[in-house]
Amino acid sequence: MNIVDLVQSQVIASIKNEKDIDKAITSSSNIVFLLTGNLLNMTEHLDRLKKANKEIFIHIDFIEGLSNTKSAIKYIAKSWNPTGIITTKNSLIKYAKEEGLMTIQRIFLIDKGAIKKGIDMCHCNPDAIEVLPGLMPSIIDRLTTQVNLPIIAGGLISSKEEILQGLEAGALAISSGDPALWNLDI
């Protein structure tokens, strides 16, 4: 399966606070990005989200107590078994793919140099890239022609109109940390 086939709702619930897990569970978003938690409560969070039939991508750079190593990726794959991971680190993308996890490479587009570096980082063949901030339809459009990977736009998205602009520019989906946007019929 590939990430394009996973997307049912084009709004991804990006969970930044544990208090929003219940909102993600009841949302129409079928994919969640988990950007909170620690080694002690992650199993509980994942169990609850899996019970709600959510596809879960753990942003491993934000999980407290987790190191950025090959053995951490093995632990995630074997013990937690999420759909995949999100990271800014190429080596972790490679390790996660070796463990059978789907991968999303997160890149920050702050200037032209960052765009070039982001494109170069895709040599590790993630399943998708997440670009932040997501309020740049012209950049998203340009990336869709330069990178043969699905693009997820996120960061600073605060309205349905901004979501639609990102999708119209060619993004596969939009990740948002705003629970008010998780139930849009998109």
Description:
The longest helix has 11 residues, at 70-80. The chain is 37% helix and 20% strand. By secondary structure, it is α/β, with parallel strands linked by helices. The protein has 8 helices and 8 strands. An 8-stranded parallel beta barrel has the order 1-2-3-4-5-6-7-8, surrounded by 5 helices. The mean pLDDT is 95.
Quaternary structure state of the chains depicted = single chain
- Shape descriptor reads globular
Helix content: 25-40%
The N- and C-terminal alpha carbons lie at a distance of 22 Å
| Class per helix and strand makeup | alpha/beta
How are the SSEs placed, and which strands pair?
Blueprint: H1 3-6, E1 11-15, H2 21-26, E2 31-34, H3 42-51, E3 55-59, H4 70-80, E4 84-87, H5 90-98, E5 102-108, H6 112-121, E6 128-132, H7 137-146, E7 151-154, H8 160-168, E8 173-176
Parallel strand pairs: 1-2, 1-8, 2-3, 3-4, 4-5, 5-6, 6-7, 7-8
Helix pairs in contact: 4-5
